[in-house]
């Protein structure tokens, strides 16, 4: 009997839905994120019509592998553990009309309903920081080393190298560059395992997010809001939210657009170079995400990476419009459901060995209260929390 598994990628620009039947995409659909934020029932009704065996629910910053039947408090699990937020922040952000928090609000509503609808057939997946293949010393003071959707794209890439190109796992060495609409991430793969990552909020300046910023700025501002992670990037600063238009103006040597594009490209290249230290045999950068489809942007990056090849993915059989992350979500779910071709990759990447929370490895004394709050929420919102057997504090 074929197994039908759905994956949902809750992107800043679109929510993408992919349904896999064994190893073939049999349905894919893309919904504008503002539409889903205003009417989550559109996506839920679509899911009801697709005769799905399992679904990989949006997993935010990630969590050790769990199913919906293991979640005792769906809303708290989603708000605090998956999104590292709080009811207060979500409510306030929605009332202020913050688009990023609309996405959070929609994700909370959709995920809690998925848990009720599918129970044990609803699956949740980790981010990079939860993986045992990433050395402990690389996790210190990190939260976002690559969210669950970025890991999903990486899973798809490892699967494609293994199944389509026929490489042994020991020969699968690459750096994944996910160029999303709001964030970019860089993930290092060594011998078919994720060994390092720079996530969207810890990377350098992105498109919507400021990414990793000088602590003097943090200290100078003093108080920040949860939705500030959606601000400070080059699109946010310019007020132009069409990346192609920003490129066009930069091409005409208009300022500040030329400077902004140069800044973004150099940020990406520096983060790529830094991550290559963790996978020195890598000669390839695998580009995924919405902005990876813009050839001019890839060329600008390539000009500064003369010693590396940049490639893209073909995607799963039958896929034509869905993002790599949505396909990867469905592929991970299929592996968890026992589909053999994906299960081999799942075992190699040690996804089932994921543990802890996204904040496990914070050592800054000012953030220990935050760390404890999220850990407490995790322990209290699932029946059998998968805590790591090691801890820094």
Question: Can you put this structure into words, describing what you see?
Answer:
The chain has one domain (4-381): Nucleotidyltransferase, domain 5 (2-Layer Sandwich). Helices cover 40% and strands 15% of the residues. It has helices at residues 33-38, 41-48, 74-82, 87-95, 99-118, 148-164, 215-221, 234-238, 243-251, 257-276, 295-303, 324-336, 340-349, 368-381; strands at 4-10, 14-21, 24-32, 54-56, 66-67, 122-124, 174-179, 184-190, 193-198, 284-288, 309-311. The strands form two sheets. A six-stranded mixed β-sheet has the order 3-2-1-4-6-5, with helices on both faces. It has a five-stranded mixed β-sheet with strand order 9-8-7-10-11, sandwiched between helices. The mean pLDDT is 94.
Arrangement of strands in the largest sheet: 3-2-1-4-6-5
The number of helical runs is 14
Structural class: alpha/beta
CATH topology: Nucleotidyltransferase, domain 5
| Cα Rg | 20 Å
Tell me the total number of β-strands.
Answer: 11
- What separation lies between the terminal Cα atoms? 47 Å
Just give the CATH class. Alpha Beta
Work out the count of structural domains: 1
Question: Spans with pLDDT under 50 lasting ≥5 residues?
Answer: none
| Structural shape | globular
Instruction: Give the helices and strands as they follow along the chain.
Output: EEEHHEEHHHEHEEEHHHHEHEHHH
Helix content: 25-40%
Give the overall average pLDDT: 94
| Percentage of residues in strands | 15-25%
* CATH architecture label name: 2-Layer Sandwich
Superfamily at the CATH H level? ATPase, nucleotide binding domain
């Amino acid at each position: 009997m074929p197994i039908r598994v759905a994956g949902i990628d809750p992107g800043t620009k679109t929510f993408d839905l992919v349904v896999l039947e064994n190893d073939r995409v049999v349905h894919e659909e893309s919904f504008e994120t503002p539409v889903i934020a205003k009417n989550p029932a559109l996506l839920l009704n679509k899911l009801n019509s697709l005769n799905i065996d399992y679904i990989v629910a949006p997993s935010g910053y990630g969590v050790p592998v769990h199913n919906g039947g293991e979640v005792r408090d769906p809303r708290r699990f989603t708000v605090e553990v998956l999104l590292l937020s709080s009811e207060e922040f979500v409510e306030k952000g929605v009332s202020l009309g913050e688009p990023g928090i609309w996405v959070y609000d929609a994700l909370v509503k959709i995920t809690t309903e998925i848990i009720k609808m599918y129970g044990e057939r609803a699956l949740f997946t980790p981010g990079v920081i939860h993986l045992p293949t990433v050395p402990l010393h690389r996790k210190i003071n990190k939260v976002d080393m690559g969210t669950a959707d970025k890991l999903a794209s990486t899973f798809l890439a490892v699967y494609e190298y293994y199944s389509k190109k026929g490489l042994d796992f020991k020969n699968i060495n690459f750096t994944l560059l996910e160029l999303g609409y709001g964030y970019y991430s860089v993930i290092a793969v060594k011998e078919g395992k994720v060994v390092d990552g720079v996530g969207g909020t810890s990377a350098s300046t992105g498109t919507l997010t400021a990414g990793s910023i000088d602590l003097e700025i943090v200290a100078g501002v003093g108080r920040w809001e949860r939705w500030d992670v959606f601000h400070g990037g080059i699109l946010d600063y310019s007020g132009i939210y069409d990346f192609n238009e920003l490129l066009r103006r930069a091409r005409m040597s208009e300022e500040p657009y030329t400077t902004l594009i140069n800044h973004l490209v150099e940020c990406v290249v520096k983060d790529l170079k830094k991550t290559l230290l963790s996978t020195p045999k890598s000669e390839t950068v695998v580009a995924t995400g919405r902005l990876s489809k813009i050839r001019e942007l890839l060329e600008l990056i390539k000009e500064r990476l003369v010693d590396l090849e940049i490639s893209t993915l073909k995607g799963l059989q039958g896929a034509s419009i869905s993002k790599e992350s949505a396909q990867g979500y469905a592929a991970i779910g299929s592996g968890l459901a026992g589909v053999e071709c994906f299960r081999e990759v799942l075992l190699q990447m040690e996804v089932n060995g994921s543990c802890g929370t996204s904040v496990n490895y914070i050592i800054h004394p000012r953030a220990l209260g935050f760390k404890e709050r999220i850990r407490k929420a995790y322990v209290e919102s699932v029946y059998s929390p998968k805590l790591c057997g090691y801890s820094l504090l």
